[in-house]
Amino acid sequence: MKLLNNSEQTIISTSDLIDLTERALSPDELTHLPIYPTDKKSYQKAKRLLERWEKLICTRTGNKEDFERRLASLGLNRDSALIWLQTRRSLQVEDLPDWAKTLGQILNTSVYPPNSTIQKLLANIDQENQLLFPDILHPFINYYISELTSVWSKYELYVKPKILNQIAENLLSRLSHISARTIAYDIKQKSTLGLLKGKTPQERYQYYVNQIVGTPEGLFRLLYNYPVIGRLLTTVTEQAIKNTIQWLQRLEFDYQAIASTFYSGEKPGLVESVDIGLSEPHCGGQTVWFMEFTSGLRLGYKPRSLTLDVAYLQFLTWLNQAQPELTLMAAPVLDRQDYGWVLWIETTDCQNMEQIAQYFQRLGAHLAVFYFLGGTDFHEDNFIPNGSQPIPIDLEGIGSVALTFQTDLQMLKVVPRPWQPDTVFATLMLPRWYNQGGYEQEAIAMSSLTGRKEGQIWPMPTPVYYNLGTDQLCLKFEYRAAKPCLSLPKLGGKAIDAKSFIGKVIDGFVSTYQTFINHRDSLLSNTGVITAFQNLPTRVLVRDTNFYHDLLLWSTAPDNLISGIDYDLSLEILCGTPILDENRKDALSYGRVEKKALWVRDVPYFSGLTSSCYLSSEDGARFGPINEHSGYDYIRYRLITANEVDLNWQKELIRVSLEMFFVPRGKSISLPEKNTEFASVPTLDKLLATRIYNHLLELGKNIENQVTHHSEGTSWVTLALSGNYGLPQLGHPIPWSSPGTAGTVIFMANLAAYTGNESWSKLSLEAVKTTAKMANRFLSEFALYQNGFYGLPIVIYALLVCAEKLGDESCLDLAYNLVMKIPAQMWGQVTNPDILTGSASSILALIALHRKLPDYELIKRIQLIGQGILSYQEQDGSNAGGFRIPNAPRPLLGMAHGASGIAYALSKLYSFIGDSTLLTPIHAALEYERSFYNQEHQDWPNLWKDPASPAFMSGWCGGAPGIGLARLEMLNLFGEELMSDIEASCQATLRHIGSGGHHLCCGEAGRIIFLVSASQKLNRPDLLQSAAQATENMLDFYEQKGYWKLQSMAARSIIPGLTDGIAGVGLSLLTLINPNQTSALLTLS
Q1: Is the pLDDT of residue 285 over 70?
Q2: Which residue among 36, 428, 594, 719 is least packed, with the fewest CB closer than 10 Å?
């Protein structure tokens, strides 16, 4: 670019361009420039930026050490970071980056009004219904067209002239979305100040685009105020030019090969229509293109290697010969190593239900193929229904499972097959779930087998622009219906899901799986067809791409575009969410390369080779080794280890995951005209008791339907939040935990005893014995005896419940043997003294076991645990009486991790052994907790947070209900001393009724159980009525909304866990109608 002198007539002078550029540079790009001037204003801004940066890094974890780790990864500390963030001013003209030179050229060569070519293009745009700003952004479109016009004539034998305008329209759309938030903000500011002339919103908008920013000076002012916009718009325009020229060159070079591959050697004619942007932009704005020739031939252009597609086609040729009764298809391709062309598959309806059944059977076969080939990302939009054939259209995830899961983790090496993560779930063909972490909308699922449920609302707010073409233009975030699914077959134009064809899906999976077993030797031979999958490029998803889309939108907020530093920091949230194990030295490096991609408006792209254990980013950065084995190793391993045991387990996962998807929404349950006595509490309303009873039956049936049977026994699959993505994922939790099988058993055994249901009784015993067997296998290796509700104590309690409720005395022996397997001295090696995840619950579980099987060895272990716990109590200072908890900023309050729970466990120890020396630490713990009682809020604060800005929890785990339960259990020992605490707990709990979720740990179920217990022990009928009203409201919500508010997600009756799911809700319902016979899990008593 020729930069004009300041004396010449220009839109943007050299000095102005340098000034704009300096403010659009990232901190990394500014580092080599000296700070000038250094003033107080610059320093104060840097301090504010540093505070914002820390907040972004710690958004996910709240751990300030994450920010220190991030600074260290950049070679910074807080002091040097302040220097790094300060404004610099000394860029020389020869140092201008390419994008800045291009921006200067775009602005200095723009034509106002636009030339005839541009005007003709813009005349076809509907600005009232499309988010487009042609009157503002036409200089960028003009530059794009002028750069292409000079080369377009070379390709007249292959493309029609109108194609250029079609691509330019897409570019305008991309540019408009980048600048929309800033333009909307700028219009609002000008309108508020009365600077826009016109009687109507439309007239004022036209004044803005014509007179304010629709002039050379006006556009420059906008870009000068928000310099990063100028950089982003120019970058995307340059990408469009490069990518268009590259597409033309490749089309010309491959034209004859295209004719030979896709059109029987005949010329397909000229390209007369294109649609670009059919995928996320990667590697410099490259996307998938659709193109149609005058002959009618339709192709897709993919700017990546299609070698995996070629290998897959070869594999299907082999499979169709080995399994001719169930043929599969994929789209023909022409691979050119770095890019390729693919036949565009048309969607066609099935002709009858038989073809629908064949379609789902073939989807089951594809599921088996991708399971064996280690493929992932085969979601609901990656199959095209072509009659009875589902055609996979994006195969770049084959072989990537080994680079997605950390299969070299120690636990995964030793746990049995049913608890290893590389299952059919990894293909993403089975339902994958989304939620927003709140309760406004239900979590939804979607998959290539189920589609999306009609009318379901996408659980994350969607950005929607309103009042287009007016000065009232604004962005709102709304919950909107999920978009239709592409992968479901249709009959008569109506999409059909797999609800009635689950058996067919499983049939297809089983048949294909067994085909692989039958041909294992030939497949694994040196000439086997799987050798084609060696050393091929595969895409690896390190995050859910919705995260990137949200960040691309959020980063274009006006306050993020006022400088490159602000924009760069807006992307730093990536570095606060390490992708792999945060202890790996390269974890934060992912954020660096992700930011680099987002700076050019790309969705970050990571890839690997199927024969390698390493990942690479688009800029060549290398990560790993991710695992000990490559994707190709995984394919071979899957074939070598294939057997009936694994086949049956994958069948169970397919069945349960699909049945979970089709669990109906909650609804009102019809009550009999004549009431039956379901409650053991005379004062409880009979209609409510009947209603509760029917809901209990529904919960029991749903949990029974979701059980899985496998080589190790019986257990449950559940939904849990992924540590990597923060989204719900289907998984098989460890059985020795309250969200896992041990917890679910406690509810089901109580329900079986209450209802007399033999099937549930049998199921509970099978599941608890599976749990005991697994716990026995891994007791020492994972120190399960120390892990509270996530270890041996919850297993012992589950066994005791089954022995008592179901009359199986063998459960007592199993519990005793588990305890005795751990030497007495090891029980005293306490690593965490709390109830939920530590050793305090071991005291309670072992005392309960001793009541059933008195034994001195149990007493010895209980005493040693008590001694170990006491070593964690603070003796001096402001924390005296509290207990040190791993990773907590200070001794905590409450039942799960705090003073209440530990003091309660010690009080049970005192009652058990009569050691009066325990009274002093118990009193100290209670006094520590009382010292934090907040008189203003009439509640106990959450000490995970800073006490200077008190926050309050409302559930059993860390709030008043748990504190109250602990006090109630100690009432016989300390009497009146505790009454004021108990009353305060009751009042705080009553205030919290209806807040948060329904689950047991920190939701309504825990509050209900506390109120029922308090009602009984204090002879307070009013508290029972409050519990009943809370229960009624909870059931009303479920029946009206159709879902429960569970831990971190709103979901139907599909999460069987005790502390986090519907088993806990059920336990609270049982406690209300049958309190004296329902297990008191929350106190393990």
Answers
A1: yes
A2: 36
